[in-house]
Specification:
Distance between the termini: 54 Å
Strand order of the largest sheet: 1-7-6-5-4-3-2
CATH superfamily: START domain
Largest sheet: 7 strands, antiparallel
CATH class: Alpha Beta
CATH topology: Alpha-D-Glucose-1,6-Bisphosphate, Chain A, domain 4
Number of helices: 3
Number of strands: 7
CATH architecture: 2-Layer Sandwich
Shape: globular
Number of domains: 1
Order of helices and strands: EHHEEEEEEH
């Protein structure tokens, strides 16, 4: 019988969401996020993004993202909505390899009308082979990303 790791026995959700409020109007925030040019808004986290196919705003586009730690993700844009200010993607490949079979993300921006700020929500859905370590790692990476974005607004 195969030995089961203790971490995989801990029940966990296969979904992880972080959110923040940016002190910028919705349209300004959307202009920063809409092209996935995260190296411009969070240079402490992402060093480069490059469209390998497609273009900004095109569903099906493939984007290569290089992170500060040297890891490289290739994502495919699965949703782009100017109307709803939503971006969605799926992970195609990762170097080093990701610890779960499937990763899908959604970034949604909403207007905070009382003070002309932007509410940002980022949800990641993982296949059920993701353990608590993977999900916790995603939480802290998003928090660092948001912190970096706020310092670069």
């Amino acid at each position: 019988m195969a030995e089961v790791k203790e971490a995989s026995k801990i029940p966990s959700s296969c979904s992880q969401t972080e959110s923040t409020v940016l002190e910028a109007p919705l349209l300004k925030s959307w202009s920063l996020f809409r092209g996935f040019a995260f190296e411009k808004i969070a240079p402490g986290q992402v060093t480069a993004t490059e469209y390998e196919s497609g273009a900004e705003g095109a569903v099906g586009s493939v984007i290569k993202m290089t992170y500060k730690d040297g890891s490289i993700w290739k994502i495919r844009v699965t949703e782009f909505s100017e109307r709803n200010h939503t971006l969605a993607y799926e992970l195609l490949t990762a170097e080093p390899a990701h610890a779960s079979t499937s990763v899908q993300g959604e970034i949604k921006l909403l207007a905070v009308t009382t003070d002309d700020h932007t509410f940002v929500s980022w949800t990641t859905e993982f296949s059920n082979d993701a353990d608590l370590t993977v999900i916790s790692d995603q939480k802290y990476k998003k928090q660092e990303f948001f912190k970096d974005v706020k310092s670069n607004l």
